[in-house]
Write a structure and sequence with these properties.
With 253 residues, the protein is α/β, with parallel strands linked by helices. The protein is built from ten helices and seven strands. Helix 5 links the parallel strand 4 and strand 5.
Length: 253
């Protein structure tokens, strides 16, 4: 695995066990919501074939392997597939393929369930990616999608935290890996919905989570997290919901 890909995989693994309560909560709450969404999407019966686009550290692959008869993990970066190779010994129904979702070579209408978590923000042509996902799903199949919101405080702060000079201070504060997020296509909620609609999807579920309060999150420990969780619940149904970090969709083809 290349050094850059290896660092990103290690960062993703670190986030779920971060020393910082806010950082850990932001990622574990997203993970838990997605796992439950995958289970809800599979509640009518086990999917014959499921696809994860951009498996990253592979946190969802064992879940998918337990839900579907066959699971495919695809990524444009072979290094991430190399990392997922270790899971195949425990999950023989898992296969790996190098594929660009914006110009996919996978067979149309061949999947019942697709997971695409924290991927479209790395793809400039997200409308093309979503159109491909729609083509890959059988009629009535489900897409579980998550992506950051464009104007959330975390995204804005991350741009500052990874600036030369500032990133060194951020690493001292967290005592953990701090790397550029590589987010080149951040969407507002309205933009994400419009792209799903244009691709032919019908949104069945929509959810928002994750409030990050700069400085307070780093200095306030568990008290800061308790405050963020209370404010999250108040912001979610309000006009200020764009401040929450992650937007989730369960959409049907």
């Amino acid at each position: 695995m290349g050094a850059a890909a290896g660092e990103l995989v290690e960062l993703q693994n670190t986030l779920y066990r971060s020393r910082n309560p806010t950082r850990r909560w932001l990622h574990t709450s997203r993970r838990d919501w997605i796992i439950e969404a995958l289970r809800r999407a599979s509640s009518a019966g086990p999917p014959q074939r499921a696809l994860e686009i951009g498996p990253g550290s592979g946190v969802y692959l064992p879940v998918l392997a337990g839900l579907a008869r066959q699971v495919v993990a695809s990524d444009v970066e072979p290094a991430f597939l190399d990392h997922a190779e270790a899971l195949r010994g425990e999950h023989p129904n898992l296969s790996l393929v190098a594929d660009d979702i914006t110009a996919t070579a996978l067979e149309p209408g061949s999947f019942d369930l697709i997971l695409c978590s924290e991927v479209v923000e790395h793809i400039r042509d997200s409308p093309a990616a979503l159109r491909s996902m729609h083509r890959l799903l059988r009629p009535g199949g489900a897409l579980v999608l998550s992506t950051p919101q464009r104007w959330s405080p975390l995204e804005l702060s991350a741009r500052v935290a990874t600036l030369p000079g500032v990133v060194r201070l951020a690493r001292l504060v967290y005592r953990e890996a701090i790397l550029p997020l590589g987010h080149i296509n951040l969407l507002t909620g309205r933009q994400a919905r419009a792209q799903l609609d244009e691709a032919g999807f019908t949104v069945a579920e929509h959810h928002l989570s994750g409030l990050y309060l700069p400085i307070l999150a780093e200095a306030g420990g568990r008290r800061a997290l308790a405050l963020e969780r209370r404010l999250e619940a108040r912001l979610r149904p309000s006009r200020l919901s764009g401040l929450l970090w992650t937007q989730y969709f369960v959409a049907r083809a």
